[in-house]
Amino acid sequence: MDHARVGDDSERETTWARARDDFTTTNHEAMNQNSGDKGFGRLNQKRRFTIYSQVIPSTFTELRKLKKPLIKDSSLIGEIPETIGNLAELEELDLSNNSLTGTILSGLFLLKNLTTVYLYKNHLFGPIPQPIEALKMEVIDLSENNLTGTISDDFGTLTELSLLSLFSNQLSREIPESISHLPSLAYNHFTGKVPEYLCANGGLIGIVAFDNNLSGELPNSLGNCSSLLIVRVNGNRLSGSISAGL
């Protein structure tokens, strides 16, 4: 992964896309259960899932043992079924780069086995649901939608979280102090200061928060964060000096 200096605009369009790609799991099977009799699609002999419908039917969530539905880049439309919370064994969900609308349903982040959610590049709107009780979450990418509201303090309870990407939404207000891994927040309306203890867990990789309304100084503690590779905070109202370690 390339290093990016504070305020450098030369790779603005691709920086966090690269970070996202580094986190993307590439060796998962498309489905863990054959759903050919549900009218939505089916697995072929190479375990690839073929889509027969552009709308996710409500019967999709009757596949109670489904663990990893990875259905990105499939021209899906409509809404995510309200019964998504019935998939108690769900571990990973990838519906990215489709044309899904509606809200993110509250039942999704109540699933105890959930570790990965990719919903980026859709047309989802409304707030990020609360509470968040999926404490095994490692990757959440909700970027490039039309989400509004605030970031919940509940994200601070996700101790396994390594990537939280929320850029290109309409989120606002201050970033919760409880978040020890700053998400990708570019193209939003956040205010206030950058939280002090972002690298408290020692795994902070990137700060991508350009084009907001953040103010104050960058925390000096970031200069001692050995895992930090990307800092993109241009387009804010930050002041003061930059730590020598950055």
Automatic annotation (TrEMBL):
One of its GO terms (cellular component) is membrane. Pfam families: LRR_1 (PF00560). It comes from the Eukaryota. Keywords: Glycoprotein, Leucine-rich repeat, Membrane, Repeat, Signal. It is found in: Membrane. Residues 1-21 are annotated as: Disordered. Transmembrane segments: none annotated. This is Leucine-rich repeat-containing N-terminal plant-type domain-containing protein. The lineage of its organism: Eukaryota, Viridiplantae, Streptophyta, Embryophyta, Tracheophyta.
